[in-house]
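Notes for week 9. Today we move from apo structures to complexes. The key idea is that a small molecule is not decoration. When we ask for a structure prediction with flavin mononucleotide present, the ligand SMILES becomes part of the input, just like the chain. The input block below holds both the sequence and the ligand string. Read it once before you look at the output, and try to guess where the molecule might sit.
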Amino acid sequence: MSKAFEPIVVGNWKLPQRFVMAPLTRNRAKGTIPDDLNAEYYGQRASAGLIITEGSQPSAVGQGYLDTPGFHSDAQLAGWSKVAEAVHAGGGHIVAQLMHVGRIAHPVNKCGHETVAPSALPAPGTIVTAEGQLDMVTPRALETDEIPGVVEEFVTAARNAVEAGLDGVEVHAANGYLIHQFLGQSSNTRTDRYGGSPEAHARFAIEVIRAVAEAIGADRVGIRISPAHNIQGVLEEDETLTSAAYETLVDGVKDLGLAYLSILADPRSRLVADLRTRFGGPVMLNSGFSNVTELEDVEAIIDEDLGDLVAVGRPFLANPDLAERWAGGAELNVPHQETFYGGGAEGYTDYPTLTNS
Ligand SMILES: Cc1cc2nc3c(=O)[nH]c(=O)nc-3n(C[C@H](O)[C@H](O)[C@H](O)COP(=O)(O)O)c2cc1C
């Protein structure tokens, strides 16, 4: 059998296998507060060993999409406690993906709160809101002296996640959201210490990760990056600048002993191999949206030692008992794209397991 099914110790957690549940936004936390349905969904997937939650805002300003959960109010934390209990009851671990969306936002989705980003440059395209599809707004560029306050939002949210009973956090520095907007060349035209050179572009990410690790312990903190993913208008088309920014980022946090570094990129790329060597700890891989991760992909990554872990998204979305199905060679449920974002139990908690189908 593939090494993908062997246990592994990652940070603070002993995991039963080397693939875990990737973060998946589902827009089903009504009013940003996780409820019993959300707890049931995550609890059903406890055999993933490690679940990374859907992207969740550390602050009201950091929300982008409708009905994404937060980690900044008592009501949200009470809801998260139920989620954590459900996952722990099934023997799993769960970490909060802290996603400050930066400019991928609209005030309509967050009670009128403003939108901030490294520079006053709108993302291209539109965003789904309660009032329909609206153009992305032009964000306000953060003042240099406001940035420690945003770092503090991540720290408070990380503390809140642990207090609510979750096992740690993943800092979302990928896919075009706030931290990635600082890293990227097209979305950051700052001339202060947070822009102008690859070292400066990486500074905000390093500050957030170091502060969060200090607050809750580095062995409970992961980070997700997507170098050169070119998504949501965050373009990293200059290879030299891009490599330099991510090398700076990894060099700036590798002494901490973080739980893992998650990279969304071609698992066989030179940059992935380079960052893995630099990081020195467990590296989690995922090749991105264009192809759904299959068991062969997981086995190739693990058995060829391209990475230590694989984040698996859509197969876990549609198969609560994916680990058992893959281990036993069983057929898989097919994910239904039309119920990915928003709605209720349909396409969320009603995917059958082998035992209840
Ligand atoms: C419905 C859906 C929601 C997603 N939400 C997030 C998210 O909140 N945070 C994140 O980092 N990635 C998110 N992703 C990306 C996944 O984590 C993963 O990288 C992607 O689905 C490719 O892996 P897969 O082929 O195993 O699904 C999302 C993907 C999908 C399909």
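Residues 198-216 form the longest helix (19 residues).
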